[in-house]
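We modelled the chain as a single entity of 115 amino acids. Its sequence is:
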Amino acid sequence: MEFAIRLQQLIEESEVTQKDLSFQLHMARSTLNGYVNDYREPDFATLVRLAEYFHVSTDYLLGFSDVKNACPMPLSEDEGRLINIYRRMRPEGKEFLKEQAKLIYRLERKYGRSI
């Protein structure tokens, strides 16, 4: 249900018709109408195409998040690894890591180069 509601809201906000949207995404109007009226569910590829079209996350479309686009730009592989490490750390380690990152950032700004 959440997907259908969110999709309908996004269509209304973008002021695109279902006819135009289905044409742009190369899908049958009846298929898109099924998504909007909650009697069909998209496959993964279609879900991703809808998210890309509306510039929202798939989590937002599916109702797992209220943040339309949690990450404005994709993470690099190194950024993803760093986040995964951070999430597995204890609270004290997280605080220490954040303080170290702030220190490195300030030093790089002050001296205009990587340290």
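As a brief sanity check on the tokenised model: The mean pLDDT is 90. The CA atoms of residues 35 and 42 lie 7 Å apart.
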